[in-house]
Design brief:
The chain is mainly beta. The chain contains three helices and 55 strands. The protein has seven domains: 5-115, Sandwich (Immunoglobulin-like); 127-225, Immunoglobulins (Immunoglobulin-like); 230-310, Immunoglobulin-like (Sandwich); 315-403, Sandwich (Immunoglobulin-like); 407-528, Sandwich (Immunoglobulin-like); 538-657, Immunoglobulin-like (Sandwich), CATH 2.60.40.10; 668-714. Strands 11, 13, 14, 15, 17 and 18 form a six-stranded mixed beta sheet that branches. Strands 3, 4, 6, 8 and 9 form a five-stranded antiparallel beta sheet that branches. A hairpin with a 6-residue loop joins strand 46 (538-546) and strand 47. The longest helix has 24 residues, at 668-691.
């Protein structure tokens, strides 16, 4: 049974609800005329008589100025009441009542509040500083921590916080107000400050929130500690690529090779030769020694030198070619014997015999990596990075780059609707009504190294073949890597007045009217003047996604926060709404965040679906799609009955797709899970090679499953 009334709150006229924390409003003197407000809401659907009833200490009833009110539905009334404060604390038991059709008042919601009596002792010490902990001295620039503990000596709880000043510089302890328990409740606040180059006075005060005007104070001095004398240690290497040096302890300031240490410190320096080198000796102000670790006594400024020598071991030459030249460069991991990591056209370097060298191509602005050739693993490869054949002989690799257009169409939409404002839909837009208007929104990105003034030409063709528009207009100057949005004003919108497929040609132009990028295809597809009635055909839409081979999570779209590297598939339930059996079908288009079409597929249900019966369209997991772009993913569905469209659905299936956090190999349990997953994959490939007659297709499908298994283990994107 629904309640007729709701007792919202009881409060004093100061505006603060009665509670032990709000002491000024929660206490009263004996004999004081205490005024209270009681708020009651009518929760019924009709006007009802409502009133509060408040009993003091179980005996005396509070008298209200207006005893009741006829309240419309949903309206809250506040009632003003009075009672005389006795010489003891009081308990208020309040309830809300409604006037029933039987002519009686009925009680419903109930609350209890207390008002303590204001006892003698008000104005005596209530809040005090219990302790202040701070060191007595510190060096200039050192972080000095301070801890302040406050104690509540009063009989009720209240909010409190400390403040401090460091030679008049304020310190607020995070401005944290804490409720201190009565009769000895304590809390400790922490903060810190940077020690200046002189002594400081720390002045601490205690504060309560609107309760007690008096504060407690505490002062303490922090003296400046004399900074130790520092000596300078310079460490040189001969040659620099021969190795590295570490020190113990670390320098107080500066770096390993140029650091400062307190006078008298004994610094242990240790030489670490790089691959292909060995440590030879120390020299300069360090006694000649062949030991990698030696002591340096910092009684004065010192300079030492670590000598490394090249080890005579077999090496092989790697040669890199850039095609065309000046279109990019290559980096290697590891570095060459001489420490070389960046390679340009015709660069060469030595690697230890047998080294596995990983090369990575880096394209210059206006170009993109295309492929590797020559002595790369496999001969040619589009992977980046990729491995060179083992360095057992002289190797040559070629990095091929290709130019990209100075500008591209990065996104394309139609804005459509029936009123003043419209919705953005990625082109191609499906299930558009012939009663709507539309205009274009095209985003272009400058991929060149210079500023470009873009132009845009588009030709819209209606289903009848008639040209609706052939328009060219110019945009603003766009800097390198910048974007420009072409969008028409509302008064140039077009009416969508024909049923069928509308096509468009879009050309992105430069300042000389050269075509930089283009799109020629479907603009939109109309379905009539009115949308189909919901639920006539499509009764359920589920997105199944996951990272393993088979198990996935079922969710109703839109699904937010899915990570790239997941696979997904659709589960669509369609019902035959007709009075006879139909050959059901499903046509769907999946659009990725960059506007490209991932899938445009039509599936048939077999055999025919009877009148009023349902059919579930679902792909096997091995045919699922990869989530490989961050952003929002869109889906358009048409449920077909023969050639007729029975129902449609259009919207987002994923919102805010994100990159997964990096992770590596984990626990024993994860490794066991991976082994099990890989065993299942091998069995699946065995079955597939028997079912799929084309071995290449079987291998491709097996590789896709293997990729999912690895992503499931590593948590990495495809």
């Amino acid at each position: 049974m629904m309640a007729f009334t709701d007792l919202i709150k009881i409060e004093r006229p100061f505006g603060t609800a009665l509670s032990p924390i709000a002491l000024l409003n929660a206490t009263a003197w004996p004999g004081e005329n205490v005024e209270i407000f009681v708020y009651v809401r009518n929760q019924h659907t009709e006007t009802v008589g409502i009133r509060p009833k408040v009993i003091v200490n179980g005996t005396t009833e509070v008298i209200f100025t207006v005893p009741y009110a006829n309240a419309p539905p949903g309206v809250t009334y506040y009632f003003t009441g009075h009672f005389i404060m006795p010489s003891v604390g009081v308990e208020l038991r309040a309830e809300s009542q409604y006037y029933g059709t039987d002519g009686q008042w009925h009680s419903e919601d109930m609350q209890t509040r207390t008002i303590p009596v204001l006892l003698p002792g008000w104005g005596e010490e209530t809040l005090a500083i219990d302790s202040v902990v701070v060191r007595g001295s510190a060096a200039a620039g050192e972080v000095v921590s301070i801890a302040v503990t406050l104690i509540n000596k009063y009989i009720f709880s209240f909010l409190a916080t400390p403040t401090a000043t460091i030679n008049s510089m304020p310190l607020y302890f995070g401005e944290r107000w804490i409720a201190l328990s009565p009769d000895g409740g304590k809390f400790t606040w922490y903060d810190s400050f940077i020690m200046p180059n002189h002594d400081v006075n720390v002045h601490v005060e205690s504060w309560s929130q609107g309760v007690f005007p008096e504060t407690d104070t505490y002062d303490v001095e922090v003296t400046l500690k004399a900074s130790p004398e520092l000596k300078h240690l310079v460490i040189n290497r001969d040659p620099d690529v021969g190795g590295t040096v570490t020190t113990s302890p670390a320098a107080q300031t500066g770096t390993v090779y140029d650091g400062y240490y307190p006078v008298g410190t004994t610094v242990l320096v240790t030489a670490h030769p790089n691959p292909g080198y060995s440590f030879k000796s120390w020299s300069a102000e360090l006694v000649d020694t062949t030991e990698p670790t030696a002591p340096v006594y910092m009684t004065e400024n010192r300079t030492v030198r670590a000598h490394f020598e090249l080890v005579l071991i077999d090496t092989e030459i790697l040669e890199v070619e850039i095609i065309p030249v000046e279109t990019g460069h290559v980096t290697t991991e590891p570095a060459s014997v001489a420490g070389k990591t960046v390679w340009r056209d015709k660069d060469t370097g030595d690697f230890h015999t047998g080294t596995d060298v990983l090369v990575t191509a880096h394209a210059y602005l206006g170009y993109q990596f295309d492929h590797w050739s020559d002595e790369i693993v496999g001969g040619t490869s589009t992977n980046n990075p990729e491995y060179v054949k083992p360095m057992t002989e002289h190797r040559t690799v070629k990095a091929h780059f290709v130019g990209i257009a100075d500008g591209i169409i990065s996104s394309k939409y139609i804005i459509h609707g029936t009123g003043t404002f419209g919705d953005d839909t990625v082109i191609p837009a499906l299930n558009i009504l012939t009663s709507e208007w539309m205009k274009l929104k095209i985003i272009a990105r400058n991929t060149s190294a210079t500023q470009i003034v873009f132009g845009l030409r588009y030709v819209i063709t209606k289903p009848s073949g008639a040209t609706l528009a052939d328009t060219t207009f110019q945009g603003a100057a766009t800097p390198p890597e910048g974007e420009h949005t072409f969008i028409e004003p509302t008064f140039t919108q077009y009416d969508i007045d024909e049923l069928g497929d509308w096509n468009i040609l879009i050309e992105l132009l430069d300042g000389s009217s050269n075509v930089l990028d283009s799109y020629n295809g479907l603009l939109l597809r109309t379905i009539g003047e009115e949308p189909p009635s919901p639920g006539e055909g499509i009764t359920e839409l589920i997105i199944i996604h996951g990272t393993g081979l088979f198990a996935g999570t079922e969710k109703v779209p839109p699904v937010s926060g899915v990570e790239t590297g997941n696979w997904f598939k659709l589960k669509v339930t369609g019902v035959n709404p007709s009075t006879s059996a139909l050959q059901m079908g499903l046509h769907y288009i999946i659009t990725k965040p960059d506007g490209t079409t991932l899938e445009d597929t039509e599936k048939e249900a077999w055999p025919h679906t009877g009148a009023g019966e349902s059919h579930v369209f679902i792909e096997p997991t091995v045919d699922a799609f990869n989530v490989d772009q961050i952003g929002d993913w869109a889906l358009s569905i048409e449920l077909l009955g023969g050639d007729a469209v029975l129902d449609t659905w259009q919207g987002l299936i994923f919102t805010n797709v994100v990159e997964p956090p990096p992770s590596g190999f984990g626990s024993i349990g994860e490794i066991i899970n991976l082994m099990i997953t890989m065993m299942i994959m091998v069995m699946m490939m065995t079955v597939m090679t028997g079912v799929i007659q084309d071995p290449a297709k079987a291998i491709e499908k097996g590789s896709e499953i293997a990729g999912r298994a690895v992503r499931a283990f590593k948590g990495r994107k495809d």
